[in-house]
Amino acid sequence: MKLKAVLKHADELLQSQFGRIQEAIQGVTNKSINRLADAADKASERLSKAMQ
Predict the structure, then answer these.
(1) 11: part of which helix (H) or strand (E)?
(2) Mean pLDDT on 8-37
(3) Looking at the predicted structure, is the pLDDT value of residue 52 above 90?
């Protein structure tokens, strides 16, 4: 019984950690996408100005 409880607790801890890791990765990905979109917007603005 004790081993089963330990394994269940370990599984819960791992699931919690995986959830945190997933949230962190998603946050980094969203920030990267936003930076790329901002850079693309700026490049587009510069190109528009250069073509005028």
Answers:
(1) helix 2-51
(2) 94
(3) no
Checking if the pLDDT of 1 tops 80, the result is no
Angle (nearest 5°) at CA 27 between 30 and 29: 40
Q: How far is CA 16 from the centre of its chain?
A: 16
Write the single-letter amino acid at 34. Answer: N
Residue labelled with tokens 């370990």? 10
pLDDT band at 15 (very low <50, low <70, confident <90, very high): very high
Q: Give the tokens for residue 31.
A: 């920030």
Length of the chain: 52
